[in-house]
């Protein structure tokens, strides 16, 4: 027994001998769709128009989620700003932003015993 496969255009539901599976790429991803010759022509024209805009556009990257610190609490009752202020007033080298070295924290805790976190 023979079977006949009838392809149906995924856009307008038409049937015909010109309907076939069409592959196309968009932004590095490949898709497939059943289209008639007319709808395939529309797709190609649309993709050419889209590519014109994409070529002149700048990609916007999604914002990264902030890193969550996995390290233990370094101080109790004081902020990093307090540590930096104390270090600068005591001629200890410390960056204005970013990670504060363990040595600076240790010196701060030595000068402020109440800052030592609970173990």
Write up this protein.
This protein has helices spanning 37-56, 80-89, 102-111, and strands at residues 20-26, 29-35. A hairpin with a 2-residue loop joins strand 1 (20-26) and strand 2. The mean pLDDT is 88. The longest helix is centred in the middle third of the chain and has 20 residues, at 37-56. It has 119 residues and is α+β, with helices and mostly antiparallel strands. Among the domains are: 20-56, no CATH class; 80-115, Irregular (Dihydrolipoamide Transferase), CATH 4.10.320. The chain has a two-stranded antiparallel ribbon with strand order 1-2.
Low-pLDDT residue spans: none
Give a count of the beta strands, DSSP E runs of length 2 or more: 2
What is the helix content? 25-40%
Using only C-alpha atoms, the radius of gyration works out to: 32 Å
Question: Largest sheet, if any?
Answer: 2 strands, antiparallel
| Average pLDDT for all residues | 88
- The secondary-structure class comes to alpha+beta
GO molecular function, one term: acyltransferase activity
Domain Lsr2 DNA-binding: 78-111
Keywords: DNA-binding
InterPro entries: E3-bd_dom_sf, Lsr2-like_dimerization, Lsr2_dim_dom, Lsr2_DNA-bd
